[in-house]
Write a structure and sequence with these properties.
alpha+beta, 32% helix, Aminopeptidase, 4 helices, single chain
Length: 164
């Protein structure tokens, strides 16, 4: 049975594998080069220092996905706005793992008295857009040809959930 819990340092190698697969094989991350374990460790430590949670979905000691929230933009006036990230391991997508990872993010944002969660999604990723809609996210903007990956221009859709 898949369990959702707060991530620990021990999860970082598996989190890194999931993230690097997204970099190399999808447009979920507009990056080109795989990250190192040190980079992922620094990312995790920054999340902890800023008080933002990282969750994992796990079954039989295997991390099947992870999620987090973090600053939307660096300026003080954005302190009540966060951006979410959810990544599910290749071969595990479409099994409800993303749903298990989203609700804890929303609950954490409410507990932190945040006002809005923003998702930046590649415009061609209809599955992610529809997934976010299931949780009440609405399209808030569409930026054309903002990213370049896999020898083509990519559009970015911003979706937003106002926390009540």
């Amino acid at each position: 049975m898949v369990q959702t819990r707060i991530a620990t340092d021990k999860d970082l190698p598996q989190i890194l594998d999931i993230y690097n697969d997204a970099i190399l094989n999808t447009t979920a991350v507009y990056d080109y080069e795989p990250h190192t374990l040190d980079m992922r460790r620094q990312w995790f430590e920054t999340k902890q220092q800023q008080g933002f949670p990282v969750f994992v979905a796990e079954e039989n000691n295997e991390v099947l996905g992870f999620s987090s929230i973090g600053p939307f933009r660096a300026w003080a006036g954005y302190k009540y706005s966060v951006e979410n990230s959810i990544y599910v391991k290749d071969g595990q997508r479409g099994k409800g793992i993303g749903k298990l990872l989203m609700q804890p993010l929303i609950d954490a944002a409410k507990e932190m008295k945040l006002h809005t969660i923003i998702a930046g999604i590649d415009a061609d990723n209809k599955l992610s857009i529809d997934f976010h809609k299931q949780f009440g996210f609405e399209e808030a903007g569409h930026l054309k040809q903002i990213g370049w990956k896999f020898d083509r221009w990519l559009d970015l859709v911003f979706m937003q959930l106002l926390i009540k």
